[in-house]
Amino acid sequence: xxxNSDFLVVGVLLATIAVLAVxxxxxxxxxxxxxxxxxxxxxxSIFVLTWISSRYLVNGYLIVLGGSYAAVGLVDVLHTLTFxxxxxxxxxxxxxxxxxxxxARFLEALALLCAPFAITKKPNFHAxxxxxxxxxxxxxxxVMAQWFPATFVDGVGLTAFKVYxxxxxxxxxxxxFIMLYRFKHHFQPRIFFLLVSSLFLAVATEFCxxxxxxFYDFTNELGHxxxxxxxxxxxxxxxxxGVRQPFELIFREMARHxxxxxxxxxxLVASEGQLNxxxxxxxxxxxxxxxxxxxxxxxxxxxxxxxxxxxxxxxxDAFASYVHxxxxxxxxxxxxxxxxxxxxxxxxxxxVGDQVRWVREVAEVTFGVxxxxxxxxxxxxxxxxxxxxxxxxxxxxxxxxxxxxxxxxGILLTAPDGRIFSANQAACDMLxxxxxxxxxxxxxxxxxxxxxxxxxxxxERSRTGRSVGERVFMRKDGTKFPCDVSSTLYNDxxxxxxxxxxxxxxxxxxxxxxxxxxxxxxxSAVFQASPIxxxxxxxxxGRILDVNDACLRLYNYTRDEALGRTVAxxxxxxxxxxxxxxxxxxxxxxxxxxxxxxxxxxxxxxGMLEMSGRLIELQGEPCLLAxxxxxxxxxxxxxxxxxxxxxxxxxxxxxxxxLGNRLQQAMITAKRSGCYGALMFLDLDNFKPLNxxxxxxxxxxxxxxxxxxxxxxxxxxxxxxxxGGDEFVVMLGALDSDQAKSTVQAAAVAEKIRxxxxxxxxxxxxxxxxxxxxxxxxxxxxxxVTLFVNDAVSRDDMLNRADVAMYQAKRAGRNSIRFYDSxx
Length: 824
Fold this sequence. Notes:
single chain; about 800 residues; alpha+beta; 26 helices; about 55% helix
């Protein structure tokens, strides 16, 4: 019955034949070499497999056959290396490869002829191999010595010796087949079929090699195909009988043992894993010390505990390097004691990186019959947390004792029935008793039992375990004093219920609170009675927290309307950006003094306030305390005084003083910028006759009209001033940097002014109870002009220059313009 593997084998063989055919179409030498190498490899594989499986083979036929193939393969190697075209050995003729071929086939036929005689026996594989090797060596020496007749003649073909030799080999193969057939019951059908097929193909191979006349004939090529298939089938027979079947039995047995071993390993690994997990949970590792090698074997948890990679080799010296230097002497002393037979149980520190850990080690030492220490076995437990907890407990107790001793509050440790066990020094000082006296008095002797809140205080402590409040205590002399008290129920180390009483004398605090209440009352009265407006608001939102009556009157709001609202909602700032400036000053300096703000009342009236403010904190939030004074009328008076000091009362033009200041600044600016300025001095022509004819009131009307005309002739940045009765000054700034161009610009403005002032004046004098008096008057102006840029003269000299130029215009016939000329 065919198996899937049979189809695979057939496919591989056909594919190999196809590859050889392709190689033949390329080059015959390449084809021959490949075919021989494949056959040689299979031959050696048969030998090796038979060698490995010889102890399992019970059929001697296969042992003889397999033992011969090493010799066959070696001779085939010589045949391949000496083949025509290889050119590996100089002076080698075509007889060498054909004679090596005959020897190899003869050895193969000899094995097939002798093998049936060993079917029921089990010959020694090495002896068989040595025998065939000996025959092969002798035959090869004969070939090299040219003892055999020629087997091939170039141009003629095969010799009679070669052909009859092939026939002899065929005869031996046929006899071998007959003998094999007689013993076929000693073989399984598949193995017998493979061996018979191999024999038939061997016969076909030899027949092909009796027919070719040239090495490149088709019969030679076909013989190599049959040769490869014959060896391959023999190899399969060896595999099936000598390897596959015995090895299947062995492999099944090995697989069973492997499964059992795997299951055992799995249980062992699981057990080891459980042990490691248990050690990790308990933080307990284990170790074993071989006293002979001084090598330590650690569990995984021990490695983890010491911060060492698992598997790192450990020794006694390595272990000593992990021990804290301060504990090394005690550890070595303990171990020496264990070697002397004493128990080994000690706690010490180890250094793991930059950390220090505590461990507990327990071990025992195994001794030989002569008392020699053989091994040590022990456990190591990480007790760092326990040590830290113990240390923390000691520190806590020490802190408690220190706190109890040095606390400024009185502390009493009592029983629930009031008996006092302990009292600190502060309690003794406050109560005027020694600790022994307090033990005798008990809580009932130091607490005012007439205190009406005492019963509820104790009841709350019994119910909740803690009570806090103000109680009255009594000193030894009978005086009473108030205290803040906190009392707590707790269980001591023995589980007994006890109480702690912590109290603080608040006599001074109550006195201060009373004084503060009186102070708050007085401050509230001052706050409300102050004639200065005072308001407190939050910095972030501007929300008003408190305001006095004076402030409410300033803004015309009631208290209910103002409290709780923001300054933005009330629109108290006429210019909201002023509040931002106030806050900036507060952040930088913490205060504001004399800051002027424009405020708006509820009715929309706008005025001016002077603010002084401080940054304060109320309930943890920053606030503004502002004191406000209405300076509206004062600022108006100051503005009026300023105007009267620097302006002409009739025309409201700048007077000589203000003109002097502006001229000084203009001269500095011209010098810095390099741009010219101009100064014009004007005197009205024909003004005196108007005063003489119609009086000063009409003359004043003309001066007002002339001032208006002058302002319309210049820019906003220029200055028009009245410096005398009918005298005016015009100052131009920021002209050109070129003098000629600046002269032209100034002349144009002067001409514009001259033309404007020369127009007729229609003046109307109005008097109560009288008809209006209309006056028509013609007036002109004489104008003197001077330029300045970097002149080293004073402002008064500059005015004098313009005045000189003006008089030059007067002398020229009036109603004219003249520029200052220093040469005139």
